[in-house]
Amino acid sequence: MAPKALLADDERLMREQLRGRLAAAWPELQLVAEARNGAEALSLFEQHSPDLAFLDIRMPAPNGLEVAAKIAGRCHIVFVTAYEAHAVEAFERGAVDYLLKPVDPERLALTIQRLKQRMQSPPDLDRIASILSAIQLDGGKPGNRLRWIQATVSNQLRIIAIDEVLFFQATDKYTRVVMQGAEALIRKPLKELLDELDPGQFWQIHRATIINVRAVANVARDIQGRLIVSMKDCPERLEVSRGYTHLFKSL
Q: Could you read off the pLDDT of 2-52 as tens digits, one per residue?
């Protein structure tokens, strides 16, 4: 069967250029959908289940990296980007396909050759995860802080943006990753997580709990004088251990 592809880019001329060059270089490829932003890309992806997705990195929310995180493991991904040295370096290091704008026919031919080989195997979730962790969109250099994690959600492996996490909580064998309306499980210990997270955003408040301070809704004392943290859109209440009360010393 002919492979199916999705193209997502907010620039009409860039979509037209890539569409034309794909038609010339890979005539058997079916371009089943085109999106102008990340929201359209996700909707069209669910409708058409393409084998390939060509994603502009800097498109209206969600951006190409965020779209890639949500569809990773379900199709092969090619990032399309204006020249950003740190991004290209990350792509090369992770052996992920990418195209620079404007798309060069010779570079496109190489990408098509790679894709034909890779499509003989399932999409590589680990490769995409490594790329997402290496790229920043603010023009800065790649950071060492954890920005994405792989986790099991309802028996499916997903890539989750760290900013989506409300809190991490250790259990007997796993670490719970709690988000708004969902939770996941990972095998990474809490201590190892703490070393990789941004200390300005994630605080340990208990030997078994790390919270995202940007998602804190309220901190109050209960009738026993203990500090209790409430997270946004989450019914769970998290106790602050005595050794961590200094983080909330103004209360």
A: 999 999 999 888 899 999 999 999 999 999 999 999 999 999 999 999 999
List pLDDT tens digits, range 170-225. 998 889 999 998 899 888 899 889 888 888 899 999 999 999 999 999 999 999 88
Domains of the chain: 4-134 (3.40.50.2300), 166-248 (2.40.50.1020)
Strand blocks (E) in the chain: 4-8, 30-35, 52-56, 76-81, 98-100, 148-153, 156-161, 165-170, 175-179, 182-186, 202-206, 209-212, 216-221, 227-231, 237-239
Query: Strand, coil or helix: what is 210?
Result: strand
Helix axes 12-25, 105-118, angle to 10 degrees: 70
